[in-house]
Amino acid sequence: MLTDSHRYCTISAIFVGIPHNLSPASFDPFAMQPVPLPSHIHYELLLQLLERETARSVDRGTEEHRQLQELVATLRRGLAIQKQLEATCDRKHIPIEYHWSLNQPTPADRSLPAES
Length: 116
Fold this sequence. Notes:
Blueprint: H1 4-16, E1 35-38, H2 40-57, H3 63-91, E2 96-99, H4 107-111
Parallel strand pairs: 1-2
Helix pairs in contact: 2-3
């Protein structure tokens, strides 16, 4: 039989995103794998390149200029959406790991012996 305390933990677990197959007593938020996300600098570098360099090479009022403006707006929206995702993860105590490249070793790679 569930006590009121167990019911509360189960309901709380649902709202904070604990997987349904884990009991609240066995859930350890620090054992969760971090969510890999690109570092914000990736967006900033692309935006600076497009706004400072690419914009100089296309004429205003052209189809290319319109597409460039659309691309810049899309990147800004992408960064804003990523920040929303980060806030959601933060509220749910889900760790985030910022990545600078695809060449970073994964936790599985780190446990493998080094090649000789």
